Amino acid sequence: MRSPWIKRGVFAASLLPLLWLAGRFAMDDLGVNPVETINRFTGDWALRFLLLSLAITPLRRFGQSWAAPLRRMLGLYAFFYLSCHLLAYLGVDLQGDWQALWRDIQKRTYITLGMAAFVLMLPLAVTSTNRMIRRLGGKNWQRLHRLTYPIASLAVAHYWMMVKADIRQPVLYAMILSILLAVRLIPKPRRDGA
Fold first, then answer.
1. What's the pLDDT band for 191 if we cut at 50, 70, 90?
2. What separation in angstroms does the CA of 11 have from each of 4, 15, 38, 73, 125?
3. Which H/E stretch holds residue 118?
4. Where are the alpha helices (DSSP H) in 27-70?
5. Most buried residue, 51, 69, 143, 163, by CB count within 10 Å?
6. Which pLDDT tens digit goes with each residue over 42-68?
7. 137: left (phi over 0), alpha (psi -120 to 50) or beta
8. Residue 194 confidence (pLDDT)
C-alpha cells in the first residue's frame, strides 16, 4: 500500500457508523422502535462492508492494486457488524432467549439464511490472520475465503426476504453483488510474453 495512512484512515472511517449509532442511542434518538433501528442499521453495515470487501478484486483488475491490503480489514468489519447485528437481535430483541432464536431459525426462512451467513463467516474471521494464512497455505486459504460469495448471496437474500414493502434497497444490493461476481468471470488480461 502506498501509504499506511490510507489503511489507518479506512480503519477509523469504518468505526464511524458504530459511533453514529452510539451517538443516536445516547441522545435517545433511535425512533419509535429502537431495537429494530439497531438491528437494521448493523445489518445494513455488515452487508455494505461485505460488498466493499468483494469490490477489491475488480479494483485490482482495473489497476487499483493499492486497495488490495484493505480487503481483509473490510471483511473483518463485515463480520464485526454482523456480530453486532446478531447480538442486538439475540441480546435485545429476544432478551437472550436461545430457544426463541432456535424457533425463529426453524420458522422464519430469512432468519435461517442470516444465521447460515453468520456460521459460514465464522471460519473466515478466525482464519484472517497472517499466522492462519501461513498455517493453511495460500491456496487453501483462498479456497476457504471463496465462501464470501455464498455468504454475500445469503445476506442479500436475508435482507430481501426481511423487507416487507419497499424492496428498492435489497434490489440495489443484489445488483451490486451480481456485478461484483460477474466481473470475476471475465478472464484476466494476458500480459505480453506470458
1. low
2. 11, 7, 21, 7, 16
3. helix 109-126
4. 34-54, 56-61
5. 51
6. 999 999 999 999 999 888 887 778 888
7. left
8. 43
Asked if 126 contacts 132 with a C-beta cutoff of 8 angstroms, the reply is yes
> CB-based contacts of 152: which residues, under 8 Å, 6+ apart?
47, 50, 51, 54, 177, 180
Residue 17 lies in a domain: yes
Who contacts 118 (Cβ-Cβ below 8 Å, separation ≥6)? 82, 83, 86
What predicted TM-score, i.e. pTM, was given to this entire model? Answer: 0.90
Residue 153 sits in which domain range?
A: 4-183
Domain count, the chain: 1
* Per-residue pLDDT tens over the stretch 107-136: 999 999 999 999 999 999 999 988 998 999
**% of residues, the chain, pLDDT over 90:** 68
Among candidates 177, 127, 173, which has minimal Cα distance to 149?
177
- Residue 189 resides in a domain: no
Task: Specify if 43 maps to a domain.
Answer: yes
Residue that has been written with the C-alpha cell 468505526 in this structure: 15
